[in-house]
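One such shown below:

_____
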Amino acid sequence: MHVTGACHCGQIRYEAEIDLAAVAICHCTDCQKITGSSFRVNVPAKKENFKMLAGEPKTYVKTAESGAKRLQAFCGHCGTSIYATTEVDQKVFGLRVGALDQRQQLVPQKQIWCDSAMPWLGKITTLPSVAKQPT
């Protein structure tokens, strides 16, 4: 599937071809901390299927719990996470689904790092819900 994405402020734009079957929820503690939430949804894109259209993300290297060094890319102006990839020999980019324009169509097909998942996640469907910000 062809996807397009951008950061919150619009300075970074990109496009990619992705496999819908590869959309995944990650519950690792790094994803929790970097998003300020309980998980992150990612989808991989091969290097040859990923193209930056505007802007250049800032990056830093984070050593994951697994010991792998992961390059984290984000907008230096608004802070939106764009992707993660290996520090060297970047062949696959883990795109952040929240920054993709087609995010409603990208239904997760699996979950990873479930040992770190918040124990209350299965109960959120029972919470009261409001369509928009309450006034």
